[in-house]
Amino acid sequence: MKARIILVGGFLGAGKTSLLFEAASKLTKNGKRVGLITNDQAPELVDTTFLEYTKGVIREVSGSCFCCNYEGFTDAIFHLMKEQQADIIFAEPVGSCTDLSATILQPLKKHFGKDFAIAPLTVLVDPKRLSDILDGVKSGLHPSAVYIIRKQIEEADIIAISKTDLLTSHEVEELKMRAAKEWPNSMVLAISSKTGEGMDKWLNEVTSRADAGSKLAEVDYDIYAEGEAVLGWLNATLELKGDSIDWDRFAGNLLNTLSRRFDDSNSVVGHVKLIIQAGDNFVIGNLTGNNESISIRRSAGIANEAKMTLNARVQMEPENLEKIVLEEVSNVCGTNIISEILALRCLSPGRPKPTHHYDYVVEMQ
Ligand SMILES: Nc1nc2c(ncn2[C@@H]2O[C@H](COP(=O)(O)OP(=O)(O)O)[C@@H](O)[C@H]2O)c(=O)[nH]1
Ligand SMILES: [Mg+2]
After folding, report:
1. Atom 19 (ligand 1) nearest CA
2. Which of 3.40.50.300, 2.40.10.340, 2.30.30.100, 1.10.1670.10 is the CATH number of 4-212+222-227?
3. Best exposed site among 95, 195, 335, 338 by fewest CB in 10 Å?
4. How close is the Cα of 94 to the center of ligand 1, in Å?
């Protein structure tokens, strides 16, 4: 059996990592050898740390997105296939990335169509963002960032509405119908990683179909570059030490104060996530919009020492983002917790320069 590569795209906070976590855990339990490829502009990724808990095998491609580091991406695929014997490889591109059909799927089909199977491109969309887009409502996101989301959906083989546990079944059906009307050439599915609803149907599609990259979106790279450049990007890892600290509470307090600071400066949050590991335990915290969007899952318990990885993508200058994050870490640590920065990268993504760009759909033999 050929290995299979499954790409799951979608904007920051859409639910990609949560879906991959559940899918990888499920397939691993069923005896599959699962590989996972994470991706970011810089190392120190919360997603990589989190996905390590699935028992899958992980490869992180950092320093550039998949499309601009196609070699790095294909090296990761071959490593997982050959060295780790992975049967199924999930890959999560950077949330602000689009044009994956032209820059990743077509070249993969052309170069490696005989080496591994390539699943249809799934693009996850948060239901609130999707209905805002369909209603033409400005959610505070820069118009060029909204452009990126539209292009992501446009090129999808499968549009997957995420977090359906937050909607009534009537709302889910209505949203599915509206999406199907707007993008009639794509399959529209609805999934909740939280309840597992829709998961088997989606897994069935991506593990059996081979029509990857059936369409191309026409992407204006000036607008795309602007949509990415408006985001400040921060990845940091810190060592934290104190005396019997409640790390779940610490995670909640930090996300709360950060959220307030971003709201005060009218800076729209793409995604702020953190993972705190204390011994064998971990807590993962997310902020995907305003203060109400804070979610804290799992528990790191009470311990003296912990390691925190924090990733923030916020619509503001990177220097300002770094200043706010460091100030609030220091405030929440107070006099009880000593923090030491182990790694810190802060940037604004440069103009995307894909390794390959196909202007036609490669047919699979
Ligand atoms: N209610 C609910 N929340 C979800 C679901 N999937 C993801 N989330 C939340 O959405 C936020 C972003 O999730 P994540 O998987 O990191 O998104 P990514 O940036 O697309 O990888 C987190 O707070 C998750 O807990 C879901 O099915 N239901
Ligand atoms: Mg993710």
Report:
1. 13
2. 3.40.50.300
3. 335
4. 15
Q: What is the mean pLDDT of residues 33-59?
A: 93
Instruction: Enumerate the CATH 3.30.70.360 domain ranges in the chain, comma separated.
Output: 232-347
pLDDT surpassing 70 at residue 365: no
CB 206 within 8 A of CB 161: no
* Mean pLDDT (whole number) for 260-274: 95
Which atom of ligand 1 is nearest the CA belonging to 191?
27
Residue of the CA atom closest to atom 9 of ligand 1: 15
What is the arithmetic mean of pLDDT over 340-349?
Answer: 96
355 C-alpha to ligand 2 centroid (Å): 23
CATH class of this structure's domain 232-347: alpha beta
Paired strand residues for 189:
160
Largest CA distance in the chain: 64
Is 241 within 8 Å of 337 (Cβ atoms)? yes
Label residues 105-125 b or e (16+ Cβ within 10 Å = b). Answer: bbbbbeebbeebbbbbbbbbb
Q: Whose CA is nearest to atom 3 of ligand 1?
A: 163
Angle 119-121-127 from CA coordinates, rounded to 5°: 135
> What predicted TM-score, i.e. pTM, was given to this entire model?
0.96
Nearest ligand, measured from the Cα of 15: 1
CA of residue 7 to ligand 2 center, whole Å: 12
Token pair for residue 118?
């390539």
Q: Report the relative pairing of strands 187-190 and 158-161 from DSSP bridges.
A: parallel
CA 127 to ligand 1 centroid distance, Å: 11
Pocket-forming residues, ligand 1, beta carbon under 6 Å: 10, 12-18, 95, 162-163, 165-166, 192-194, 271, 273, 286, 288, 295
